[in-house]
Write a structure and sequence with these properties.
Blueprint lengths: L1 H17 L5 E10 L9 E6 L7 E4 L5 E7 L6 E6 L6 E5 L6 E6 L16 E4 L2 E5 H4 L7 H5 L5 E3 L5 E3 L2 E2 L2 E4 L10 H4 L7 E7 L18 E6 L7 E11 L3 E12 L2 E10 L17 H6 L20 H4 L1 E14 L4 E25 L4 E26 L3 E21 L3 E23 L2 E21 L4 H4 L7 E23 L2 E24 L2 E4 L6 E19 L3 E18 L4 E10 L1 E8 L4 E13 L10 E4 L2 E4 L6 E15 L4 E23 L2 E26 L4 E18 L2 E20 L2 E16 L8 E14 L3 E14 L3 E16 L4 E8 L6 E8 L2 E8 L4 E9 L1
Parallel strand pairs: 1-7, 13-15, 34-37, 36-38
Antiparallel strand pairs: 1-4, 2-3, 2-5, 5-6, 8-9, 9-14, 10-11, 11-12, 14-15, 16-17, 16-47, 17-18, 18-19, 19-20, 20-21, 20-46, 21-22, 22-23, 23-24, 24-25, 25-26, 26-27, 26-28, 28-29, 29-30, 29-31, 31-32, 32-35, 33-34, 35-36, 36-37, 37-38, 38-39, 39-40, 40-41, 41-42, 42-43, 43-44, 44-47, 45-46
């Protein structure tokens, strides 16, 4: 892989210097009327003086701002014309030095405009912007903007709420050009009324930091919701009252919003005990700058846990027994000059109960371990999360400072029925703080900047197991009432850097130099509980680790762009000094090394419709000190782990190739790609079972895991019949190493899947179908694989408009799997609802009957590496609800 990277780097480096280039300059400014009010949708056209040919054009946004790139080397004199219907156009001459902000004032025209009839297109493009006309995709039952986005060709919303365009997650979610929610855009997606949005816009190759636009390239898109006039400068939103039986059910919410040029607000309070998961709306989806947060342990990192089943592949409201409060307050205000001040606050109080069972089969070369469990789970969580953000984002300067605090309290209780009954409980508390500061300035075609991230977190954790188990292993054959594992992690992390970028014609040179310091302290101990007293067990269960990582890095990069070609090469170099001190054993381990990493990105656009993206990446890093403990930790009631003080590097090698096609005129989008990914750790866990107790000892040995995958998707909107269709496929081969009693072997998973979605309108009928088929084969390399596992999940919803402005909707779900010739499971669910919509007042009354067949259990089959698991779930009983939603 390293050889491949070197060859690609040399090839693209040579290519950079033999390709002809032309310089570009960006003109930017604002368009106002004579009353100094911003004018949106004004057209900026650039052409040679005295020539009718247009070389560049652009449009002013809702704030009157425009930004247009134009070539400077092909023409001596260029003129720019700014025009807008109802105003007198103005023209001025451009010079290569005209890169500052330009203010254009248009005078209103007194000439009567002729009547013009415009036929709206469902989808059209302007430059790098794909515009979807919301009205073309809206159906009577659609309430929030997510209902519309799910139908748009080229765009998808994953089960977790992530929005993807042409297979890649978006990097920003704007509302009228403002970034109110950062990564938490599910809140707007699931609550903003669909009739408040005029257009959904995809901004291709979007660079969120404007000052970086000429110094760094992006291959990801952003999404912008363009609101209509009726949704601006007033409070809109919804309020819902829901109640039902089986037993008493409540589902209430209040979501007011306000959007204006000077600021935006979204607030939300929701309470439910009816199985609905509003936690997804507050999830951080984009993962912007996530690496600093991961290394700084700013979120929960549970080393101790209650054994929980995987989430079933069925809608959450069917199996979730919850009592949930969520509160979210989000305010963005434009303050002095170009600054924006943003406040985001989330509070979550959640209680979940679940009765489940599982059957685990762990395959080894010479043996198979079988574990059967029935579990009664009770999870209680409280989260308080707050962000204060100050931002100024212009083409000449970028300033952003984010201050955040995160407080989490988790308590999980699990009653396990296996060979012996056991009760396990965990407590995890998180208190974390971070401050993230970034500053960029552009002057004389050069960008300079500084960045600083600093964080601190404290995470005490506790696991208790009753009655006492494994006394022969844990307590010298002395019986005890229970066992308690205590653990505490404190983390200090900081990453500071200086950036210097320069542009020369079509070349962009980037360089960032900085340092990283990470200090972690982990203590843990295992104690027997006897007569309400704690008695420490053997020293082999005591950890006292202080680990420090210090790194100096330099990230050098060069990019080359033309209208059709993009090539970017980044070569980070880092010096690492690692020092781990084990106070409990008076040991110390040190490591010094230099790491070379590298990334090559390339894009070639055959036309405005066709393009190919390629990426080769090699990265080498070290895991946190907490993965290098030197004594055992009881992570749950049946797992003991020992890292054996091994400092763990992590290598990752990736090659991606993806072809994209879009044709807005034909409403057709498609992508096809292949990925090869190899991750390598330096350790393997030598696994040994004593009864149900798994003892894992870390062994220093190469541990590669390789994934090969092919994926593709095609989606089209059939305008004449108002129907969206999409189909996708994927194939994956995963190879991972297993170590049992010092014997190493490779386990192989082969997965093949296809899925399709249809949204059709047939007169007063609407039909939605979503189906996925997946086949999995697994086994040890060189040996016969296990029988194929075939899984099919389908959902069909039929909505009919009936008299009295009512909507009748029937939803059916089918989920099942088949393994070999012996196991065949199929489960069916059905819901029916009747909705009455009124105009005055704007109200929606819905009667809903869920789980008509009263299906009370559900089973899934999943495979991860060499672990095959059947999970059994208790399903919510049949329930009837009435929900009244007020729109304002």
């Amino acid at each position: 892989m390293r050889y491949v990277f070197k060859v690609l780097a040399c090839f693209f480096s040579t290519f950079l210097f033999v390709t002809e280039s032309n310089a570009q300059v960006t003109i930017q400014g604002f368009v106002y009327n004579e009353k100094n009010q911003a004018l949106s949708n004004a057209t900026i056209t650039i052409k040679p003086d005295g020539n009718a040919g247009v070389v560049a054009f652009g449009f002013a946004d809702v704030n009157g701002r425009f930004q247009v790139k134009y070539p400077t080397t092909d023409f001596n004199i260029l003129t720019a014309t700014v025009s807008l219907i109802g105003y007198i156009s103005t023209t001025f001459t451009l010079k290569p030095t005209d890169t500052g902000l330009t203010k254009v004032v248009l005078r209103q025209s007194n000439t009567a405009l002729p009547e013009v009839f415009v036929k709206n297109k469902a989808i059209y493009t302007r430059g790098d912007t794909v515009n979807y006309n919301v009205k073309s995709f809206t159906q009577k039952q659609d309430m929030v903007i997510a209902d519309i986005i799910r139908k748009l060709p080229g765009i998808e919303i994953t089960e977790s709420g992530v929005i993807k365009y042409q297979g890649r997650p978006i990097n920003k979610y704007y509302i009228d050009g403002l970034d109110l929610l950062d990564d938490k855009y599910g809140l707007a997606n699931n609550n903003l009324p669909a009739n408040a949005v005029d257009q959904v816009q995809i901004l291709e190759n979007h660079q969120p930091i404007k000052s970086l636009d000429s110094f760094a390239v992006s291959n990801r898109a952003a999404l912008n919701l363009k609101l209509n006039a009726s949704a601006r400068n007033k409070i809109i939103g919804k309020a819902k009252i829901g109640f039902g039986a089986a037993p008493l059910l409540i589902d209430n919410e209040l979501v007011p919003m306000k959007f204006s040029k000077r600021g935006q607000t979204i607030a939300s309070y929701k309470y439910t005990n009816a199985g609905y998961s509003y936690l997804d709306e507050l999830a951080l989806l984009n993962g912007n700058d996530f690496m600093n947060g991961i290394k700084g342990f700013v979120d929960k990192n549970s080393f101790l846990n209650v054994v929980l089943p995987a989430l079933p592949n069925v809608k959450k409201y069917r199996f979730l027994f919850n009592n949930l409060h969520t509160l979210s307050i989000n305010q963005l205000t434009k303050v002095k000059g170009t600054y924006e001040l943003k406040f985001n606050l989330d509070y979550i109080k959640d209680l979940q109960k679940q009765e489940t069972g599982s059957q685990n089969r762990i395959f080894f070369n010479q043996d198979t371990v079988l574990i059967n469990e029935r579990q009664q789970i009770r999870k209680k969580q409280e989260v308080l999360r707050a962000f204060i953000t100050l931002t100024s984002n212009t083409s000449k300067r970028y300033i952003k400072n984010v201050t955040s605090t995160n407080i989490i309290s988790d308590r999980d209780l699990g009653l396990i029925h296996a060979k012996d009954t056991a009760q396990q409980s965990t407590r995890v508390k998180v208190q974390s703080f971070f401050n993230d500061f970034t500053w960029f300035r552009v002057k004389n075609k050069m960008l300079t900047g500084i960045s600083s991230f600093i964080s601190y977190s404290s995470q005490p954790q506790q696991l208790q197991v009753f009655p006492g188990k494994y006394e022969g292993i844990l307590n010298n054959n002395i019986k005890y009432a229970g066992i308690q594992q205590d653990l505490r992690i404190t983390t200090f992390f900081t990453n500071n850097g200086v950036t210097l970028n320069r542009r020369f014609r079509r070349f962009m040179f980037e360089n960032k130099t900085g340092s990283i310091f990470l200090s972690q302290h982990l203590t843990s101990g295992l104690a027997a509980i006897q007569a309400n007293q704690l008695e420490p067990v053997a020293d082999s269960f005591v950890n006292n680790l202080t680990g420090q990582q210090f790194s100096i890095y330099n990230n050098a990069g060069i990019s080359f762009t033309t209208k059709k070609i993009l090539v970017a090469i980044n070569i980070p170099i880092a010096y690492y000094h690692i020092n781990n001190v084990y106070t409990n054993t008076h040991d110390e381990k040190q490591l010094e090394t230099i790491l070379f990493n590298g990334t090559v990105n390339a894009r070639y656009s055959f036309s405005s419709d066709w393009g190919v993206d390629a990426e080769a990446r090699y990265s080498h890093d070290y895991l946190s000190p907490t993965t290098s403990t030197n004594r055992f930790i009881l992570s749950n009631y049946r797992t003991l782990k020992n890292q054996n003080a091994i400092i763990q590097p992590f290598n990752s090698e990736t090659i991606k190739l993806q072809a994209n096609y879009k044709n807005a005129v034909k409403y057709l989008f498609a992508n096809l790609g292949v990925t090869v990914e190899k991750n390598e750790y330096s350790t393997l866990f030598d696994q040994q079972y004593i009864g149900q107790l798994l003892i894992s000892n870390s062994v220093q040995q190469p541990n590669p895991a390789t994934n090969y995958s092919i994926f593709g998707k095609i989606s089209k909107y059939l305008y004449k019949i108002g129907t969206s269709v999409s189909a996708s496929c994927f194939a994956t081969k995963r190879l991972s190493n297993q170590l049992t009693r010092t014997q190493s072997s490779t386990f192989v998973n082969n997965i093949l899947g296809v899925s399709t979605k249809v949204n059709a309108r047939i007169k007063q009928w609407s039909v939605d179908y979503d189906g996925t088929y997946q086949q999995t084969k697994s086994g040890f390399e060189g040996a016969k694989t296990t029988g194929a596992i075939r899984q099919l999940n389908q959902s069909l919803a039929i909505t009919a408009s009936i008299p009295w402005d009512c909507l009748l909707k029937l939803t059916t779900d089918q989920s099942g799997f088949k393994q070999g010739m012996t196991i065949n499971r199929n489960y069916y669910f059905a819901d029916i609802s009747l909705r009455k919509q009124t105009v005055k007042p704007k109200m929606d009354v819905e009667l809903l009957w869920q789980n008509i067949f009263n299906t009370n259990s559900f089973e899934t089959l999943s495979i991860f590496s060499n672990n095959e698991t059947n999970n059994f779930y208790t399903i919510r009983p049949s329930q009837v609800m009435c929900r009244i939603t007020f729109l304002f």
